[in-house]
Amino acid sequence: MLSFTPKKRLSVLVHILGWFMLCIVLLLLSPLSWRMGEIQLPVQFWWKQVFLVLLLISIFYTNASLIVPKILLPGKNYLYLLIVILGAVFFYGLIIYFEQFTLYSEKMHEVFNPGKPFDPHRKRWLPGDVFQMLLFLVSIGLSTSLALVQKWQKDETLRRELDRQRINTELSYLKAQINPHFFFNTLNNIYALTNLDVKKAQEALLKLSRMMRYVLYENQKNETLLSKEVKFIEDYIELMKMRMTEKVKLTIEIENPKEDLVIAPMLLLPFLENCFKHGVSSQKESEIKIKLEVMGDTVFFETRNHIFPVNADSPEAHENGIGLTNTQRRLSLIYPEKHRLKFGKDEAKQEYWVNLTINLA
C-alpha cells in the first residue's frame, strides 16, 4: 500500500494548488478580460484551454522526473538544451495541430469577426503564440528548479545521515576506549590496595562491581540520568579514598541534581581519573577539590589537584592520556555550542585545574 507522510502530503497539496491556480488563470481570468458579457466563446476555445493545461502538466513532470535526472544532472548540458529546444518545437506543433483538428481558428474568427470570410492562410496571432511559448518556458523552468531542489534535499538528507552514522560510530569507538581505560586504572588501584588492607580491597571490589554494572548498562545508552552519573562519581571517589593516606585532603562539593536532567554517561570520569592519577603523593601533602553544581539546566563541574610526577614503573606512566582526549572529542560531538571546557596549570601553586560548563537543555 502507498503511504503518505505529512511532508509528502504537503508536497502533493502544493502541486494541486499550483495547477489549480494555473487553470484559473488560463480558463477563467483570461476569457473574463474579453468582455464575456458580449462574446459567447465557442466550445473549441475551452477544449484548447484544457488541452493546454494537460500538455503543460505532462511537460512539467516529464522534465522534472525524467529529463533533468537522466540528462541535466549527469552533466549532459548541451543535450538537455537541445531537448528543450526540440520540446518547444514539438509543443508549438501540437498546439497548431490541435487547432486545425478542432477548427479552433475558424470558430474564433466567426466569434470575433462575424460576417467576414475566414482566410485559412492568414498569419497567426503573434501575441497568442508568444504567450503559449512563455507558458512552455515557465513549465520547463519551474520543473527544472523543482528537480534541482529535490536533488539538493536528497543529497543533504544523505549527508546528514552519513554524518549521524559517522558520529555514532565515533562515539561508540570513544566509549569503547574509555571503558577499558577506566577499568584497568581501577583494577590497578585495587591491586595496590591488596598489599595494604585485604578487607578494604574486598570492599573496593564490591564497589567496583556496582560501578561496572553502570558501565555495562548505562554506558551503552546515548544518555543517562544526571542523578545516576553523580552516584557513579560518588562511588568512584569513595573507591579512590580507600587507597589514600592522611596526607591527601579531599574537598568534595557535589549537589544532588534533579531527576529529569540527562547527560552522556561517563562524561566526567576522565577528569576525576586525572585528579587521582596526578594529584596524589605518598610522601607529600596534597589537596584535591571536586565541585559539581546544577543551576537550572546547566551543570558546572570543577576540579583542582596538585601535580606530582607519576612513578615510572607504574602502568599509568605509559598511558597517552586517551581519557581526556576522548572526553574533549565526545563533548564536541554531543554538546556542540552547548559546553565550555577550560583547563590548565597554575605554576605558582603547582595545580592543575578544569572548569566545565554544560547546558543540558
UniProtKB/TrEMBL annotation:
Q: Which residue intervals define the domain Signal transduction histidine kinase internal region in the entry?
A: 170-247
The Gene Ontology CC terms held by the record are: membrane
Q: Which SUPFAM superfamilies match?
A: ATPase domain of HSP90 chaperone/DNA topoisomerase II/histidine kinase
Which keywords belong to this entry? Kinase, Membrane, Transferase, Transmembrane, Transmembrane helix
Extract the InterPro entries matched here: Bact_2-comp_sensor_kinase, HATPase_C_sf, Sig_transdc_His_kin_internal
Record field: transmembrane: 12-34, 46-66, 78-98, 130-149
Q: Which domain of life is it from?
A: Bacteria
Extract one GO molecular function annotation from the record: phosphorelay sensor kinase activity
Q: Which PANTHER family match?
A: SENSOR HISTIDINE KINASE YPDA
Protein name, please?
Answer: Histidine kinase
Record organism: Algoriphagus boritolerans DSM 17298 = JCM 18970
Lineage runs:
Bacteria, Pseudomonadati, Bacteroidota, Cytophagia, Cytophagales
